[in-house]
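Weekly structure sync, notes
Attendees: PL (lead), two postdocs, one rotation student
Agenda item 3: pending single-chain targets
PL asked that the sequence for the first pending target be pasted directly into the notes so everyone works from the same version. It is reproduced below exactly as submitted, 402 residues in total.
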Amino acid sequence: MAERALSGIRILDLTQFEAGTTCTQFLGWLGADVIKIEPPGGEQSRRNRPEVPGLDAMFFLVFNANKRSVTIDLKNPGGRALFLRMVERADVVVENFAPGLMEKLGLDYERLRATNPRLIVARIKGFGLSGPYHEYKSFDMIAQATGGVMSVTGFADREPVRCGAAIGDTGTGVHTAAAILAAYIQRQRTGQGQLVEVAMQEVVANFLRGRYADHYRDGKPSGRRGNELVGGVPGGAYPCAPGGPNDYAYIYVQPMSEEMWREFATAIGRGDLLADARCKDAKARWEHRDALNELIRAWTRVRTKHEVMAVLGKAGVPCGAVLDTGEVLDDPHLNARGQVHTIEHATRGRFRLPGCPVRLSASEAPTTPAPLAGEHTAQVLAEVLGLSADEVSKLRVEGVLG
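Predicted structure, written out during the meeting:
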């Protein structure tokens, strides 16, 4: 395989669950050597809703591809000493432990920086390292709540809704990866590492930028609108045949594009609407949206979501079939582009997952299976620290290694 974009960058991965693991998996896809440092028995998400007793949970497998695993007991003084020896030879450390845990372990930023001044230390926290909430624990849904996303998700007459995708976790992970790469580029100029701090609440609040445009335009907080996009008709999820729970197509005609409206009306066989006073412009269509949406639903209900998407897509109208997780994995477009990867795992067998969502023309991004707990302990310690098999065995006896 040709050299990959991040080949030669060594990352010590202390992450767990999703926000941190998303960051390190993304960097691993791009070629970084990600060494997952786990406690004896493995990181706790290996046991998060396991499908098969005694085997790693699928939750762990989907967030920890493209990594090597070393099990070190960081509560053991010898384990911390061993980890610091690895820090001397690392480029990056990433952690998303609960607030204060790194400090309790004696592995705070000042200690790590003193060990390796070139080290980049990325710390992911729910609310950052300072401020009134900084000691509060957080998860994705807490970030969605405090970052404002839940206040604009759902329908106006119902309670706030959590986004089904973990945007607080995954969004934080991707932002952290970008920040690490920025710090790495800066280190090439200065020779010095630095602290990268990412707060989940701040990432989610940043995702909400478009709704602040509404806030200032309307002079009040933006609210929940369901699937409706203000001003756009059509603008929502329309039911399709045969009427299953995900048999919908999302259609959107930009209110500022009369050409797109004409293309839409023609594509659904309703050219007569072009002369209808209710449709003379975007404002009129919005005022009569209930009647127009019923006309549109009459057209979509007798077609499958894939048929609707094909007709409108070819006409230049933005439209997407609502796909469930199984349909995504089977999607002909994603598979034609090689985006769905088949994984062969040592204990869980064969399964499919979406691969790296970015493509570099000069660097491949394969997906390798998530490691077993401690699978690479001896290999990594020999490679990074030059430890012999006897030395590794001695550390196991001493309880330093899992």
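Discussion points:
- The two ends are 32 Å apart (CA to CA).
- The chain has two domains: 10-207+335-397, 235-326.
Action: rotation student to compare against the earlier draft before next sync.
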